[in-house]
């Protein structure tokens, strides 16, 4: 059974509104809420909140939370997932009207609708076939034209269906194009079905309406400039790891179709907000390495990667960047830990879920151990590293550990 399915069986409501595959499992958040003894009155922050698993789990338990996310589409998703205020009867009624209008337009539309040339360049070739794309665009425009107060739910339902039901995308774990293409699909009925799921979930949890979950689109390396006014008692998060995963690529299709990214420049400015965890996201002006220049284990790791590259005679531009990414990644996390102190309450406790890596010319990167050193260097106490699970890495034919790094911030 895939991880995604396992998660679905555990606690699907609300988490299933967007994309499970991007998130860590809700049960892990539940476990740390209990272990840390988090209760009403506490504030939890997830500085890399992605699709909002931590925030949704907190809200279900009546705990106030904040999320920071650099990718606008995932930020939008987590913020919508934490909004349970809808009058579900009206919401469904409006969705039916939109569905009716979109269906009429689709039936009478002689010409297909397309993306602009610039938008087309941003998405993976063959991400979505002509007909589903055209119908999804008609539905999107019908949603926007309705100016509904439920627009967020409607667009999120569309985003999820674009990825899982209308597109040719496959995830394993990187995004690619499936050989089996979807040429025709019931775009509108499937969307309406997704609204029904949301309606049911909101009804189940509407009693937690007034529990605040504040999601901010921003960079976790610049927390002091973000509008966080209250001190945070706990962190439960899963930051990126140095694993070549490009978060903007995994979410590209729905980002472009829903208008979150419209040009190369916009894409670049989104990517610049990310922690440097892959070689496709390194820029000339990057200087986060300076924050770990005094940590010898990180310098040594970076050096051994570069030496292995030279020994293997690997000369592509990407390969030459691997050793820098390691320093930039841990440097970025160091900057994050520095900035985080400005919002932490005394004796705050923190859980960081991270995975080891072995992809850079098979040199192991013990992420949790190195991150522990980085955090200690920034004045945090390391309480321990707890095993979470193992992942099989096909590229290197090895099992890699995912761990939870537990930290404490005593205060200054
Ligand atoms: C491992 S995922 C988090 C998954 C999350 N736990 C969930 O439930 O979906 C890491 C997230 O960090 C985000 N990210 C990367 N760099 C960031 C930064 N500098 N500030 C804030 N978020 C960032 C990525 O866009 C991605 O969504």
Structure explained in plain terms:
The N terminus is likely disordered. By secondary structure, the chain is α/β, with parallel strands linked by helices. Helix 2 packs across helix 3, helix 5 packs antiparallel against helix 9 and helix 13 packs antiparallel against helix 14. The chain is 45% helix and 16% strand. The protein is globular. It folds into 3 domains: 113 residues, Vaccinia Virus protein VP39 (Rossmann fold, 3-Layer(aba) Sandwich), CATH 3.40.50.150; 120 residues, no CATH class; 131 residues, no CATH class. The strands form 2 sheets. A 7-stranded mixed beta sheet has the order 5-2-1-6-7-9-8, sandwiched between helices. The structure holds S-adenosylmethionine. S-adenosylmethionine binds next to strand 2.
Provide a short characterization of the protein structure:
With 412 residues, the chain is an alpha/beta fold.
Question: How does the major sheet shape up?
Answer: 7 strands, mixed
Average pLDDT across residues? 92
Strand content: 15-25%
Termini, distance in Å? 47 Å
Shape: globular
The main sheet orders its strands as 5-2-1-6-7-9-8
State the helix count: 15
Number of separate strands: 9
As a percent range, the share of helical residues equals: 40-55%
Radius of gyration: 22 Å
Q: Which terms summarize this structure?
A:
single chain; 412 residues; alpha/beta; Rossmann fold; 7-stranded mixed β-sheet; two-stranded antiparallel sheet; 15 helices; 9 strands; 45% helix; disordered N terminus; binds S-adenosylmethionine
């Amino acid at each position: 059974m895939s991880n995604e399915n396992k998660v679905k069986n555990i606690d699907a409501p609300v988490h299933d509104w967007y994309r499970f595959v991007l998130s860590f499992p809700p049960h892990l958040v539940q476990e740390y809420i209990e272990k840390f003894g988090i209760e009403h009155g506490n504030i939890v922050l997830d500085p890399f909140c992605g699709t909002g698993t931590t925030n949704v789990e907190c809200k279900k338990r009546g705990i106030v939370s904040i999320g920071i996310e650099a990718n606008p589409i995932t930020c939008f998703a987590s913020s919508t997932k934490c909004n349970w205020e809808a009058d579900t009867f009206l919401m469904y009624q409006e969705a039916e009207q939109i569905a009716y209008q979109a269906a009429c337009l689709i039936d009478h539309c002689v010409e297909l609708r397309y993306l602009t040339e610039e938008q087309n360049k941003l998405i993976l070739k063959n991400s979505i076939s002509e007909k589903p794309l055209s119908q999804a665009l008609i539905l999107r425009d019908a949603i926007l034209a309705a100016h509904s107060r439920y627009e967020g739910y409607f667009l999120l339902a569309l985003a999820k269906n674009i990825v899982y039901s209308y597109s040719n995308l496959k995830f394993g774990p990187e995004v690619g194009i499936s050989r089996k293409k979807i040429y025709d699909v019931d775009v509108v009925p499937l969307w309406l079905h997704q609204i029904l799921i949301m309606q049911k979930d909101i009804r189940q949890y509407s009693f937690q309406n007034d529990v605040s979950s504040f999601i901010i689109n921003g960079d976790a390396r610049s927390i002091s400039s973000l509008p966080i006014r209250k001190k945070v008692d706990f962190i439960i998060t899963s930051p990126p790891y140095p694993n070549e995963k490009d978060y903007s690529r995994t979410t590209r299709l729905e980002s472009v179709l829903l208008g979150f990214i419209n040009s190369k420049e916009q894409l670049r400015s989104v990517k610049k907000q990310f922690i440097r965890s892959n070689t496709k996201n390194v820029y000339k002006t990057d200087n986060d390495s300076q924050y770990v220049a005094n940590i010898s284990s990180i310098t040594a790791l970076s050096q051994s990667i570069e030496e292995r590259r030279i020994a293997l005679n690997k000369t592509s531009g990407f390969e030459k960047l691997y050793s820098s990414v390691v320093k930039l990644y841990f440097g970025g996390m160091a900057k994050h830990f520095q900035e985080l102190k400005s919002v932490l309450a005394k004796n705050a406790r923190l859980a960081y879920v991270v995975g080891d890596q072995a992809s850079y010319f098979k040199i192991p990167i013990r992420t949790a151990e190195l991150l522990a050193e980085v955090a200690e260097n920034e004045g945090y106490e390391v309480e321990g590293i707890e095993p979470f699970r193992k992942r099989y890495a096909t590229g290197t034919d090895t099992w890699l550990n995912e761990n939870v790094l537990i930290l404490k911030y005593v205060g200054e």
